[in-house]
Amino acid sequence: MAEIVRMPKMSDTMTEGVMAKWHKKVGDKIKSGDVMAEVETDKATMDLESYWDGTILYIGVEEGKAVPVDAVIAVVGKEGEDYKAVLDAESGSSAEPAKEEKPAKEDKPAAEAKGSSDAPAAGGLTDADIEKMGVTVIRMPLLSDTMTEGVIAEWHKKVGDKVKDDDILADVETDKATMEVMGYASGTLLHIGVEKGQAAKVNGIIAIVGPEGTDISGILAQGDAPAKAVADKKSDVPVAEKTAEAKEEDAPALGSGDRLKASPLAKRIAKDKGIDLAQVAGSADGGRIIKKDIENFKPAAASADKGAAPAAADKSAPSIPQYIGEEKYTEKPVSQMRKVIAKRLAESLFTAPHFYLNISIDMDNAITARTAINTVAPVKVSFNDIIIKAVAVALKQHPAVNSSWRGDKIRFNEHTNIGVAMAVEDGLLVPVVRFADGKSLSHISAEVKEYGQRAKAKKLQPADWEGSTFTVSNLGMFGIDEFTSIINSPDGAILSVGAIQQIPVVKNGAVVPGNVMKLSLGCDHRVVDGATGAAFLQTLKGLLEEPIRLLV
Fold first, then answer.
1. Among 11, 164, 422, 430, whose Cα sits 20 to 30 Å from the Cα of 494?
2. For this structure, is 23 an active site residue?
3. Which of 389, 360, 371, 370 is nearest to 515 (CA)?
4. Short-list 274, 269, 292, CA closest to 282
5. What is the pLDDT of residues 54-106, one digit of tens each?
6. In this predicted model, which residue has the larger pLDDT, 378 or 106?
7. How far is CA 280 from CA 60, 295, 325, in A?
8. Which residues form the Lipoyl-binding domain (predicted)?
């Protein structure tokens, strides 16, 4: 009997999967354990293995299409077996089999399989036609759980080059890192759809590979080219501006006789710069003042031409020097990383009700302990490493702070995965130190240093930044006394760490020099209450002021 293959749930947060590539086609024999396809989940691209022996009778999802978890993606059975009854039973209605009938017709060699829907007027070639041509359409893959588009950082192949299925075609800049893209196809690179430096939406066509000399005009006709459209719009803007300027510069004189002659553009620039048009000599016909006259105007020379007579007329009047400035700016395209930072932080701030709790920590004992630790530690331990360890230990005692809002339920995490905020050139990354409560200070220090090097080199992978339960953000090394942070969703809280300050403190009734560090705990009020956050900070304060407790 035919068996239905469904979209499996490949991660705990997966709700749908994108069919990245089929390794089998209708009519192919498969065995249990064979890789049928590659599926892009919200975390990574994974292999979909077969659990059946038989023949693939039906494929219901095209490459690049997304389907929900548990949706029908294929049918496996005996060769020639009628699979429609299985699909009919699955759908439970007459409407659904009608929709599934179209792919079935594509398998028939009869002429009716190619109806009017395949005509160019109906929108170009079908997937079956493209497959018969031996052509592979390469689309922008989903390389991270938050990626919506990718920028082509570099092409390693050019049109006309021979490629193999394991060749690296391009480097793609995502919102997290720069990653390599394989074509999974052999042949000639026939078309590059996105130029270097341009962005393409996930599943957008970026290249086409096939036999040399293949006519791909029909494929391109039904593709999209958003990047080119944007470029065209941008290229229109300067032309319009130049035309407007030209019109203004060529404007006729405002009047005759003693009236001042100047173009509207020249008048506007002179007004913005505070220039008296009476001091400017016009270079156009009839002495009319135009844009370049304003730009080349030098107040010092003009005042010299006027002579010293006006100045002598009123010696008592204060002389205010004239300063001419120029408004200027540069604009840069928003990087993939910055787009996602903007989106995610805005969602967190305007969705989770934030509140903040502040506390001061006496760091005298921590300074002494760190000095002693670094005399024997294999790697240098920082204050941030000590804070990460103390936070992880404190979270084990306060699981309510180590929690996250899940809509209709609250998840209390029993493990402590500490996200460590790191500044990089394009923005911010938060790699995760997993199970930090069980690791030594030396282990945490080595792991954080490695993450820092890989983050700056853009070599972090999705597995490195996923799964945090709490986040630590430290700006103390920049001399920031105290600050607040936006919660890194779906975490329930974030700790902001300031610099250690040498200030007078009162100890045993006497004012003495002290070393104080200020902490700010940002909480999602949906999962953490004020008293709960305060109790966590009290425990953290005790651990940092007596760091020997971290070793017990």
1. 11
2. no
3. 360
4. 292
5. 899 899 898 888 888 888 999 988 888 888 888 887 776 434 444 444 444 34
6. 378
7. 75, 10, 17
8. 2-77, 135-210
| C-beta neighbour count of 550 within 10 angstroms | 18
Query: Hey, where are the domains in the chain?
Result: 3-90, 127-212, 337-550
| Those residues with Cβ within 8 angstroms of residue 27's Cβ, 6 or more apart along the chain or in another chain | 55, 56, 107
The CATH classification of domain 127-212, taken from the options 2.40.50.100, 3.40.1790.10, 3.20.20.80, 1.10.10.10 = 2.40.50.100
SS3 state of residue 91? helix
Q: Determine the topology of domain 337-550 in CATH.
A: Chloramphenicol Acetyltransferase (3.30.559)
Please, is 352 exposed, middle or buried when counting C-beta atoms within 10 Å of its C-beta (0-12, 13-18, 19+)?
buried
Q: Nearest-CA neighbor of 223 among 191, 255, 245?
A: 191
User: Which tens digits make up the pLDDT trace of 271-293?
Assistant: 878 888 888 888 776 777 887 88
The token pair that represents 492 in the structure block: 């329930």
Fold: same for 3-90 and 337-550 = no
Identify whether 490 is preceded by a cis peptide bond (ω within 30 of 0): yes
Asked if 462 contacts 44 with a C-beta cutoff of 8 angstroms, the reply is yes
DSSP state of 508: T
Question: Both ends of the chain: CA-CA distance in Å?
Answer: 62
Pairing of strands 168-173, 162-163: unpaired
185 pairs with which residues across the strands?
Answer: none
pLDDT at 545 over 50: yes
b/e map of 514-530 (b: 16 or more CB within 10 Å)?
Answer: bbbbbbbbbbbeebbee
Amino acid at 228: K
From 28, 161, 232, 529, active-site residue? 529
Tokens of 352: 């989770």
Q: Say whether domain 3-90 belongs to CATH 3.20.20.140.
A: no
Name the nearest CA neighbour of 427 among 348, 344, 338, 336.
Answer: 338
Q: Which of 23, 415, 443, 525 is catalytic?
A: 525
Any idea what DSSP says for residue 484? -
pLDDT digits (tens, 9 = 90+) for 386-422: 999 999 999 999 999 999 999 999 999 999 999 999 9
303-319 pLDDT, tens digit per residue, is 544 444 444 445 566 77
Give the angle subtended at the CA of 541 by the CAs of 539 and 546, to the nearest 5°.
100
272 in active site: no
Q: Are 119 and 38 in contact (CB under 8 A)?
A: no
